[in-house]
Amino acid sequence: MRKINVLNIITGLNPGGAEEMLLRTVQGVNKNKFRMVVVSFVGGMLKKEFEVLCSTQVLNIKSTLKFPLAVVKVHRLIKKYNVAVVHAYLFHANIVARFAAIGTSAKVISAIRIKQIEHPWHNWVDRFTRFLVDIYTTNSESVTKFMINVCRINNKKIVCIKNGLEIEKIDKISADHMLRKKLGIPQKAKVIISSANMRRQKDYPTLFKALTLLKNVHLIIIGGGPLQKEYELLAKSLGIDNRVHFLGFIRNFIEVTKAGDAGVLSTFYEGQPNAVLVYMATKKPVVTTSIPETRELVKNNFDGLLIPPRNPRKFAAGIKKVLTDKKFTEKLVNNAYKKVKKDHNITRVIKETEELYTKLCAE
Fold first, then answer.
1. Using one digit for the tens of pLDDT, what is the confidence trace for 12-25?
2. What are the Cα distances from residue 228, in Å, to 162, 205, 240?
3. Which of 80, 177, 197, 347 is deepest in the core (most CB within 10 A)?
């Protein structure tokens, strides 16, 4: 049986939800059936991990002015590798992939992993180039509805493949017991983890204001982003800079999360937040804003706490609740772990992805 050649294209290779899911997919697919190639506009921390797994190329496309060049380069790679399926992740890579596949027999999968609320013009571009896409994949029912209602995508062209984690692998990883010492956090202090890149969407100001209402609680931020300097200044202006620890992009995020006491996510909109799944898998109580995407994962007061957006006082109260009510927190953690293990194992994601590739190539 001939292998199906799949070219995966993404905008960058620093840790993030889409990048981590692509990495897990490349790791997990059946190598006897699929030959995976990864192409990225720019490099990043994950580049070496991808290179161990498959052919990985960085195009060095750092400006939208170079998108025509990106289209040409990807088109050549599709022909070079005799690609049957182009699987694109994130907006800019999605658009380049659609035009690059013109004139080839490659099927195009466009992975939509977030609701484009902050950049509505993305939805218009999506709508007007949808004829170049064979299948859209989403990672939540909320994103699926958004694509149907806002981008006017035919529901028959959408396949929802929800995020998954390597639960068994996570179970075997130990907490970073030296974390507090390395960061100068007192042993008696409580530690909350926020694994989210620093963009407007993640609403760190609400989280910081909530922290001002809590005593002896430190916040560890996993992730980088364009607003880091701004948020460092905000933390200082609020007088909590000695309790907020910016770690940037790291690979030992599981060890760090396990060293914390709770996982938090203050966000306006998502696709399906990997951060919440990681908190559940590492048995940390979840406190997150109540939006459609998080409500698909968390049942309030059963396996996590859902807080109204932009409400620092209620966010602080939720954090205090999970840090002080041991019996309540134990219930949340146990229920959340059972859910993530049952519904969000990477094995299911790999199976559904392989089935999609096979079905597309059979048409």
1. 999 888 999 999 99
2. 29, 12, 15
3. 197
pLDDT for position 18: 92
Confidence (pLDDT) at 116: 78
What domains can be seen in the chain, in order of their start residue?
4-164+345-362 (3.40.50.2000), 167-343 (3.40.50.2000)
Provide the strand spans (E) within the chain.
Answer: 4-10, 34-40, 55-58, 85-89, 107-112, 135-138, 158-160, 190-195, 217-222, 244-248, 262-265, 286-289, 305-307
Copy the structure tokens of residue 139: 């990672």
pTM (2 d.p.): 0.92
Could you tell me which residues are beta bridge partners of residue 165?
A: 345
In 44-114 the beta strands, taken as DSSP E runs, fall at 55-58, 85-89, 107-112
Mean pLDDT across the chain: 95
**Six-digit token string for 10:** 């993404």
DSSP state letters, 141-191? HHHHHHHHHTS---GGGEEE----B-HHHHHHPPP-TTHHHHHT--TTSEE
- The CA-atom distances, in angstroms, between 100 and each of 7, 11, 58, 96 are 11, 15, 16, 6
> Where residue 263 falls among pLDDT bands split at 50, 70, 90?
very high
The residue count for the chain:
363
Looking at the predicted structure, is the pLDDT value of residue 363 above 80?
Answer: no
